[in-house]
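hi!! sorry for the late reply, been swamped w classes. u asked for the two structures so here they r. pasted raw, havent cleaned anything up. first the sequence of the first protein and right below it the tokens
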Amino acid sequence: MIGLMGLVAIVYNARAQEDETYKFIRYDANVLHYDSNAAPMTAFFDRWQRLTETGTGNLNIMHIGGSHVQAGTLPNTIRCRLLQAYSNLVGSRGMVFPYSAAAKCNNPADYRVHCFEHMDLTRCVHKEHAWPLGLCGIAVTASDSLAEVQIVMNEPSVDYASNRVVVLGHSDQEVVPLLRVDDRDIYPSYVDPRTDRFVFNLSRAVDSFAVMLPCKEGEQFTLTGIYLGNRRAGITYSSIGVNGAAVPDYLRCRDFVRDLRLLHPDLVVFGIGINDASGPNFDTAVFRRNYLQLIDSIRTVNPDCAFIFVTNNDSFRKVSRRKYNVNTNGPLVREVFYRLAEETGGAVWDQFEVMGGLKSMDLWRQAKLAQKDRVHFTVAGYRLVGNLFADALMKAFAEYSETLKQSSNQATKQ
């Protein structure tokens, strides 16, 4: 059997060799930057260590951001890398949202969504919310007796079968959602009106189902999220993303903290910032203050939660039909994240530096790793970024484990 250090080293080196053709990437900078004595990161790695040693418990990770996260490829690449490294520790799929239940709203590829009736969309980026929003920052509202949202797991490399499904949503007319499994309609095992949770405990684990929202005339039901759980030990990696979202948009989600208690994250990966810094009047003081407010809200759920701040990717602004200017706010965001990591005992993954620094997005575009808008990546680009992040995270954990081993050996000798 390959030990933890050997496994991580093999995976890490394989990725580095595969990506050596991209000379503009700074592989030497692909590390997590953090104080090794910081209590939150130490607690997170310690929990991860106990999970790998005992095979019991759960490690809950939440990745939150804007369109980079909603698209799904980036977080799913990280998720699969972690779970493939520990094939016996596949936990729950965690929080998902049926994005494509609304028109022109893109959905992650690792689960398919089918919806046959029109649903209205509310996103946190809207100035006014038609309905109260929760952790997911987005909602779809049904008003038809035949409203149905089908969820089908679509990641062949991971078994995400769930025997506990929690539907988050509310209805002024007290519409109660049903779960359809194998052509059988199932009523909730229990309903918690305080948290707008409809909990379905299933007799067997399933990888596909439909949420039925039977609205009579004049009735509506607003769906704000779906949590997929099971009783297995392992790593649960939930991704929360809304196209165009900035930090203040999540702060305006009324039920953010309430829903976060369902996840109770041990680690939050912050990927919010590209939209905050997209304009010419970016204020670093306001940006930092907003982030501290978001961090405080998360710590009301878990005071020991660890944070990894992902610096903005290099990007450009479109100034005319064919002209783009480099966005010089990237380095400013980077400085704020290093300060936030120091203040919160968190870590920084310096994506900006790893990808090559200022103006490097053009090199990524020429390599077909970034889109023409010079803000978003291609599918191949998102996979590369996800693998680079996973490399840095797993390498940091391997180094932590090796330090524990050396300390244990010294104690034994004494």
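now the second protein. again sequence first, tokens right under
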Amino acid sequence: MVTFDHEHVPLAIVEALEADGVAVYPGSAALQFAQDKAAMRTRLADAGFPVPRWQVVQTSDEVDAFDTPWPKVLKASKGGYDGKGVWIVDSLEQAADVMSHDLGPGAVWMVEEMVDFRQEIAVQVARSPHGQAVAYPPVRTVQVDGICVEVVAPAEPTSVSSAQAEALALGIAKELGVIGMLAVELFDTDAGLVINELAMRPHNSGHWSIEGAYTSQFENHLRAVLDWPLGDPRPRQHRAVMVNILGGPIADLHVAFKHVMARDPGLKIHLYGKEVRLGRKVGHVTALGDDEGELLDRARHAADYFQGVIDE
């Protein structure tokens, strides 16, 4: 059996393994919808799931003619993550400039409406080969320049109940035949939830679950692909807050690690061992408790120290 922690594994490799009789989770039949946004939008819309208005385009004139007001969202159908491959364009001229760049192999241009949302939320689902599935509670995510900077768990949607949000994510996992973890990123709008992106792996928006849930998303991913009974996804405490550490001027994060541990022993700190580059996710800080504001202040302070924003 083979699984992986990133969905940009070439589909041909997954298909070749499957042809040789290897069980690969998630399989190619599901994985294609995490790798190709146009295929995902088509499949989910055909199945009746809520997606933004969108279409495939070839020229900036087609973007201009797309019947939604500016600004509009231009996307490459393949290869994007952390805001890469997504552009907010305000005019025909901006669209033409973006589309002057080459797309990757097999990718097409997509234009979407700019969704007016109250907040962005995400729901993680674990699903096993025999169809058992569990959903983690919805979380609120905050993005800056397309990169998730913080997560609050759990977070009630404003337009529907948490149970409805979880049911939506579970329905998508079943419809696509996902085995393992699925993260469903959603816009919470006045009219209800609208699907933004899918990720078929343990996802940054679920890292709070390492300390914050009875069973982390990583453990449930392994349970799912092994077809073991799934673990309890419920939170251990009233609230969990996770703030990402982005690369800044401090190259030796372990020096900062000692300071943050000593200053606030209750925080949980994870460093990923990656080369520190400006804006790159290199770790995260999690705080658990009751008061969301206090938890955010503590986790943000620690992340700011790692990022060189503050020095005390």
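hope this helps!! also noticed smth abt the second:
The radius of gyration is 20 Å.
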